[in-house]
């Protein structure tokens, strides 16, 4: 991988010295794609002879030798202009006597241009990207393996970051399997078994042969049950054709973003955020706009900040209450303020993630955004069964909203996965039959979560240099450990940020937690208390002991 970073540029130029034996195959296509991101990625197949990458900034060329394009049965080259082309009227691709252009009417360009090899001689590609000072990153790499197979990936996938929560959970699991006694507090998965009534409904579905495909949007029985739940518990009215059941709330969220966002749209996301929100926006070729919050405000969005950041490109506001990772719950009054702002902008929709709705601690109460005046037709509500009903492995969630949006989500689902598991849907009907808010089965779990929360809040408040906002829902603590940054531990080195602190706690304390940087706030780490009180007590003691050397380092 070659990476050249220039902080300002007037012209970026790629030159290839092509082998004279390279055949002009008329069946081959080269593609140039221009995207509105903030870096430039240049993946192309390479072998054999030499080529050069030239970047010219203030007339001073920087070069790096690369390998040339290899003549393959189906050669492919893709140039991805990912820097924002501010103040650039045209991005020109001149070849020989021909010049093809992608015109920009706004700050961003999103175009794809294709050429036959016979009319596309590999000589010089020049990008005139405007004179404004910008930061530009260029990467070039070989995309052919040793067998000559093109292994290049799409720029959309390359722009997506892997989930740190999944990565840390997998790492902790691997350590446990290797015999290391790691306490895993990274994953958001209840330690309870699925309530027996729900499990029996799934087992009976199998025994009774209810194992075939279901309608794409979900069984009518389940969608009717969801409509009843939303009306009775949330005060919002839907019909079955305004609900689509998916393989988990994560799929519901992703389909919603894909259904309503166009390239160049902005998705407004308060931070700290669930790790997948920004990546879902990027997968839709939209731009995540992150709005910071403060621990002193319980990590709740400031309506004034929201209003100042809305533009004509703002398409979606994502709210999560109760919140992952903070456990914060939006009061109804604050949601009403946000709703008044949303109402001023006809293009702005709200994606309300309510998956932790039932895991809430009095006196806090849950308010569905769609229940607020004027917000029903502006809101896509997502919920599911994983968290409250301890059904993470059953993979079932749902989205409810205006019919035309829901139908669009269903269209995407029909081409990706089709309907969710018939067995899981039968179990979900049983879950919704447990009574208001899940009945005693859910309230028993919530009682245990609250006991664990109270223990952790008390324990961490007794530690030096720790800031904590008491969560009102979900099963996470988002704790500010930034006072430990800059300190050094013998045999480990300096604690630079939340990632290095989490690595230190895993190495020294054998406790797996998630860095706040994964959620957009590097001052904190996330601790899941979806585990037994005994396990949490042991984890706190390990963390306390691991921090002692860091506390001592501050005194030196």
TrEMBL record:
Q: Which InterPro entries match?
A: Aminotransferase_I/II_large, AspAT/PAT-like, NHTrfase_class1_PyrdxlP-BS, PyrdxlP-dep_Trfase, PyrdxlP-dep_Trfase_major, PyrdxlP-dep_Trfase_small
Pfam families in UniProt: Aminotran_1_2
Q: Which pathway does the database say it acts in?
A: Amino-acid biosynthesis; L-phenylalanine biosynthesis; L-arogenate from prephenate (L-Asp route): step 1/1; Amino-acid biosynthesis; L-phenylalanine biosynthesis; L-arogenate from prephenate (L-Glu route): step 1/1
Q: Which CDD domains match?
A: AAT_like (cd00609)
Q: Please give the biological process terms from Gene Ontology that the record holds.
A: aromatic amino acid family biosynthetic process, prephenate pathway
Q: Where is the Aminotransferase class I/classII large domain?
A: 181-543
Tell me, what is one Gene Ontology molecular-function annotation carried by this entry?
A: glutamate-prephenate aminotransferase activity
List keywords of the entry alphabetically. Answer: Aminotransferase, Pyridoxal phosphate, Transferase
Which PROSITE patterns does UniProt cross-reference here?
AA_TRANSFER_CLASS_1
Q: Which cofactor does it need?
A: pyridoxal 5'-phosphate
| Family affiliation | Belongs to the class-I pyridoxal-phosphate-dependent aminotransferase family.
**Protein name, UniProt field:** Bifunctional aspartate aminotransferase and glutamate/aspartate-prephenate aminotransferase
């Amino acid at each position: 991988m070659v990476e050249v970073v220039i902080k300002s540029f007037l012209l970026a130029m790629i030159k290839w010295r092509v082998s004279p034996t390279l055949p002009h195959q008329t069946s081959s296509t080269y593609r140039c794609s221009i995207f509105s991101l903030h870096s430039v990625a240049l993946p192309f197949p390479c072998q054999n002879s030499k080529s050069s990458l030239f970047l010219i900034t203030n007339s001073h060329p920087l070069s790096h030798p690369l390998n040339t394009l290899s003549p393959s049965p189906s050669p492919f080259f893709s140039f991805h202009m990912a820097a924002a082309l501010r103040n650039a009227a045209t991005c020109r691709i001149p070849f020989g006597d021909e010049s093809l252009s992608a015109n920009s009417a706004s700050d961003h360009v999103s175009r794809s241009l294709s050429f036959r090899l016979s009319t596309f001689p590999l000589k010089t590609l020049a990008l005139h990207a405007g004179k404004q000072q910008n930061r530009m990153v260029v990467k070039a790499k070989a995309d052919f393996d040793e067998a000559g197979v093109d292994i290049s990936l799409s720029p959309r996938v390359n722009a997506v970051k892997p989930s740190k929560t999944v990565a840390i959970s997998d790492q902790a699991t691997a350590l446990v399997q290797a015999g290391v006694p790691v306490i895993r507090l990274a994953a958001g998965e209840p330690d309870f078994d699925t309530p027996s009534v729900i499990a029996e409904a799934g087992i009976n579905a199998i025994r009774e042969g209810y194992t075939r495909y279901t309608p794409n949007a979900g069984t009518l029985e389940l969608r009717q049950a969801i409509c009843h739940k939303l009306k009775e518990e949330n005060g919002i009215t839907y019909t079955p054709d305004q609900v689509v059941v998916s393989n988990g709330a994560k799929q519901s969220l992703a389909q919603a973003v894909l259904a309503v966002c166009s390239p160049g749209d902005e998705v407004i996301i308060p931070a700290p955020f669930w790790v997948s929100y920004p990546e879902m926006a990027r997968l839709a070729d939209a731009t995540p706009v992150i709005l910071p919050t403060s621990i002193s405000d319980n990590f709740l969005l400031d309506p004034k900040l929201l209003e100042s950041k809305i533009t004509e490109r703002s398409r979606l506001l994502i709210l999560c209450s109760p919140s992952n990772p903070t456990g914060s719950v939006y009061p109804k009054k604050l949601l009403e303020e946000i709703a008044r702002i949303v109402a001023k902008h006809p293009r702005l929709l709200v994606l309300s993630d309510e998956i932790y709705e039932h895991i809430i601690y009095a006196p806090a109460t849950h308010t569905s955004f769609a229940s607020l005046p004027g917000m029903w037709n502006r809101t896509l509500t997502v919920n599911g069964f994983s968290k409250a009903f301890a059904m993470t492995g059953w993979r079932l969630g749902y989205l409810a909203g205006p019919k035309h949006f829901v139908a669009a989500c269903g269209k995407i689902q029909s081409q990706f996965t089709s309907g969710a598991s018939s067995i899981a849907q039968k179990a979900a009907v049983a879950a919704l039959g447990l009574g208001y808010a899940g009945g005693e089965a859910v309230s028993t779990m919530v009682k245990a979560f609250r006991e664990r929360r109270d223990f952790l809040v008390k324990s961490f408040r007794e530690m030096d240099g720790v800031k904590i906002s008491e969560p009102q829902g979900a099963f996470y603590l988002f704790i500010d450990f930034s006072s430990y940054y800059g300190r050094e531990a013998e045999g480990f080195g300096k604690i630079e940020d939340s990632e290095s602190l989490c690595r230190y706690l895993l190495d020294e304390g054998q406790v797996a937690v998630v860095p706040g940087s994964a959620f957009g706030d590097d001052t904190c780490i996330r601790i899941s208390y979806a585990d037994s009180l005994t396990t949490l007590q042991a984890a706190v003691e390990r963390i306390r002991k691991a921090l002692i050397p860091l506390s001592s380092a501050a005194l030196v």
